[in-house]
Each structure stands twice: as C-alpha cells, then as structure tokens.
Design brief:
Number of strands: 23
Shape: globular
Structural class: mainly beta
Number of helices: 2
Length: about 300
C-alpha cells in the first residue's frame, strides 16, 4: 500500500487517507470525534502512527499540521448573529422543506405545488425546476450515499422523521406517538425509546459527530439528549407554537428551530438558552437549515417565501 494524499474532514472531524493498493485507488478515514482545544496533538499523532501503517515517519509532520488546523477550526465556536440577506418568492404554494448543499453555494426547496426548485444562494436566482411529483413534496435532500434501509417496527403512530447518524451505525426516528427511538442500523432493532414530550414529535436530528441528538415537538419545545447515555441535556422553551424543524450547526454548539409561530430561533445546544429570534415570515415556518460552515441559515414558510440569513 502507498499513501497518495491526506485530506482534512472538518465535520465530523477526521482525516481521510487516499492510498493505492494493487494499482487501485482507495480511501479510508481516521475519525477524531474527541478532538478539542485541550488535545495533545503530538501524542495523538503518535497513537495514529502506531495504529495506521500508512502514516509513516515521513508523514508525521504533515499529519500534525492537518490536525492542528482541524483543532483550530473546531475551536471556532460560532457566536454569529444572523441578518436577513434575501427573500425569495419561491413557489406558488407553501414550502414544505429546504436543504443546503455542502458548500452552501446552492439550496433546494420543496412545496405543496408538487415541485422542487434549485437556487443559487448568493444571487437568489432559480437554477432549475424539478417536476413530476403527483402530490406534495414533503422531504428533500442532496445526495449523501451512506447506509442501508430497514423496516423499523415499534412506533404506535405515524413516523415524522427518520435519519442516520454520521457513520450510519444508528437510526433516529421521531413519531406522532410522542416518542423517539434509536435503532441499531446493522439489524434494525430498537436500542432505546425516549419519552418526555407532551405532544407529537415533528422532527429529530443528530449533531455531526453523533454524540448528541435533538427532538422538536408540537408541544412547542425541543429537547437535547446524549446519544450514548440517552441522558436528557437541555429543554428549549420560547416558541409560541409547534416546532416543525430542528437542526444542529456543524460545530454542534448551536441549534436552529422553525415554528408555526412564524419565527426561527438560534439556541445554545448545551444550556437551552435562546440566543436569537429570526423574524419576518408572515406564516408558519415549515423548514430551516444551516449551511456546512454554520454561517448561513435558510428558512422556508407557508407564506410561499424562502429567506436567507447570514
């Protein structure tokens, strides 16, 4: 095996190794989920070198430099205050969902008008309209080809959300039965049932490392949990209506929620403190999302508009 290149992966934190084996290019990852500002980088690189044959003595300085860059990036916990950048009259009927691509250069919207649209984030120009659905478009996403799909049986009411954690080892589902469930993705078995909400769970999400997950509910609150221990971390209170969407920023220290009270909110993910209220929509917000760097937010509403905040 011959190492060809080293690539940095910011979220979830790690290093990608591109190498050649028997004339074929392959890729493997070194996951650094516990890396933080206090990590001894030299000691960490020594451990990596012992465990990974591709990281030879000649590559130690390069690996050290990459990990220091990653450490610096992870230390930049965003205290960004968002301002309205653009308002787009996106569809002729209410929006149901919005999603940014990895770079944040473009985003996609779904609607009750049965279409999806692709947009340029900087200019707000519509790039493409995708037609063909025979009913409402409820879910959209850019391609992220990981994991397998199982039939998950356990909830006693409609499932409102389902997603993998970053390495596809766990699946998180939220349901109208007021519970969320964690599932082993290798066999489809339920490993935990989480209760606490007083009404239907409308959305759920993992952070980028998979260490934490959050749920939002028709009871007007959101909750944060530790994935490994299932321990309750924080309760997010302040919205005056149901919370239809929730997502972590890439750094994992902020949460974004969208609500039927026509506002989106930015929260401290560990304390549950509301840091900013994003106002301007004239009807309920169905969807909201951070970009890959966490410095752009998009919101989609029943008022038929999409707003960009940065």
């Amino acid at each position: 095996m011959k190492l060809k290149s080293l690539l940095l992966r910011y979220y979830p934190p790690g290093i990608m190794l591109e190498y050649e084996k028997n004339g074929e290019l392959k890729m493997k990852s070194i996951d650094l989920l516990d890396l933080d500002a206090s990590t001894d980088v030299r000691a960490l690189v020594e451990d990596i070198q012992k465990a990974e044959p591709l990281v030879t003595a000649s590559k130690v300085e390069q690996v050290t430099l990459l990990i220091r860059r990653l450490q610096e990036k992870l230390g930049q916990h965003s205290n960004h205050s968002f301002q309205l950048f653009k308002v787009l009259r996106a569809h002729i009927l209410p929006l149901t969902n919005v999603a940014l691509n990895k770079s944040g250069s473009c985003f996609i919207t779904g609607s009750y008008d049965r279409t999806c649209k692709l947009w340029d984030t900087a200019s707000g120009v519509e790039l493409h309209t995708m037609e063909g659905h025979k009913n409402v478009v409820y879910a959209i996403a850019f391609n992220n080809p990981y994991g397998k799909v199982y039939t998950l049986i356990g909830h006693c009411a409609e499932i409102s959300s389902a997603l993998f954690n970053w390495d596809c080892s766990l699946i998180l589902t939220g349901s109208m039965d007021k519970t969320c469930m964690l599932w082993d993705a290798t066999n489809g078995k339920c490993v935990a049932t989480i209760t606490g909400h007083d009404d239907e769970i409308l959305d759920s999400c993992f952070d980028y490392t998979g260490k934490f997950f959050a749920t939002s509910s028709a009871d007007g609150t959101a909750r944060v949990y530790n994935t490994a221990t299932r321990k309750f971390i924080a309760k997010l209170e302040g919205h005056e209506g149901e919370i239809s969407k929730i997502s972590f920023n890439p750094q994992g220290n902020r949460l974004l929620t969208g609500s039927s009270d026509k506002t989106a909110r930015i929260w401290d993910a560990q304390t549950g403190q509301c840091l900013q209220v994003l106002e301007g929509h004239t009807d309920e917000i169905f969807s909201c999302a951070f970009n890959y760097q966490g410095n752009i937010v998009i919101t989609g509403s029943k008022d038929n508009t999409c707003r960009i905040w940065r």
